[in-house]
Model the fold of this input.
Amino acid sequence: MTTDPGLDSWRDLLAHQQPAWPDAAVLAEVVDELSILPPLVFAGECDVLRSRLADAADGKAFLLQGGDCAETFAGATADLIRGRIKTVLQMAVVLTYGASLPVIKVGRLAGQFAKPRSSDDETRDGVTMPAYRGDAVNAWDFDAAKRTPDPARLLKAYHTSASTLNLVRAFTQGGFADLRQVHEWNRGFIGSTVNVRYEELAGEIDRAMSFMAACGADFDSLRTVEFFSSHEALLLDYERALTRIDSRTQLPYDVSAHMLWIGERTRQLDGAHIDLLARVRNPIGVKLGPTTTPDDALALVDRLDPTREPGRLTFITRMGAGRIREVLPSLVEKVAASGAQVLWVCDPMHGNTFESASGYKTRRFDDVIDEVRGFFEVHRAAGTVPGGLHIELTGDDVTEIMGGFEKIDDAALATRYESLCDPRLNHQQSLELSFLVADMLRGR
Ligand code: PEP
Ligand code: CO
Done:
């Protein structure tokens, strides 16, 4: 190395949302151990994803990014991971078939173990404890010892990410994701009109493939699927320990995931998160909430994508159904006018969260759909590209989001509410959303 890539300059800057680790020496030991563990992804894969995202920014592909709000160590089982992968594959097939567009599949998984919180503490019945910050930091149990941040959890987050990604790679490379399994992915899910619609579409795909096979087509390219990992780059000690100099290019990559994003709460221009992520070569996302100004967006482009490299920067807007039509237009217009080529993605989840009368953190399926519609409308009017969808989902039949074809109401939320953080679309709601978005994409 001839130049210092400045990978530690973030340490002099303000880093929001970092845990109060009780013992700096223990943290330092863990970081040393993490620093020599093997990369979870190969830098070359990050470059491939960057080029795919460049296609999406250009309207030639569509990004589907989804997974848990917060992964848990207990949730890293074969069945639960398979359920999430199947759901993403099914959504992708609906979108690909419906819109005749390649869909880039990126999981919010194999590393989504740390959460920003609106408050550092949580009080229950007069007792105050540190807030739960994700399994990489502390435990959900409301117990003083378990809520104390424990650096050993960073190691467990690494190893759980590794085993999750290993299974994802096995599923997507080993034949499970073969398009000829399109019916198989639906097995085990509850019967419903959404599922009937999916089975019809799968039947059409089967017929198309039989036709192609009869014509002597070669199906090798359908056997495997490209699947990338992503998470919020929140815990900077962890992300720094997984940042390595790529042997091919001598450039730094954060090899904890293919794509990293910076959350709405940690995207300060002079903050530590932007500083570290500006220096790595991965594709980077930034969440933009309803208070974002066009100048904020332009300054983020200058900091994170100074050379205007296609696929480098993704803006994930999460405005809320009620705000998107008012806030997004000036952002997309000014960014487009600056000549920057960012990928615009809609997160219709985080601007639409509220507490239900019965006390559950929830969202309305109709608000989710309305925000996505608003996103497409704004881009159509501006002549820009609505390039992707970022959602919180699970492959299970949970009841965390109100509405959808099952018409989950407030009373039904208690039936099966399992998220430790934000409410997720269940399997049915995820499929339903993908059918609706396929229609919007066709009209794009
Ligand atoms: C999240 O994606 O779970 C999250 C916390 O999002 P945001 O930064 O947009 O609030
Ligand atoms: Co969330």
The radius of gyration is 21 Å.
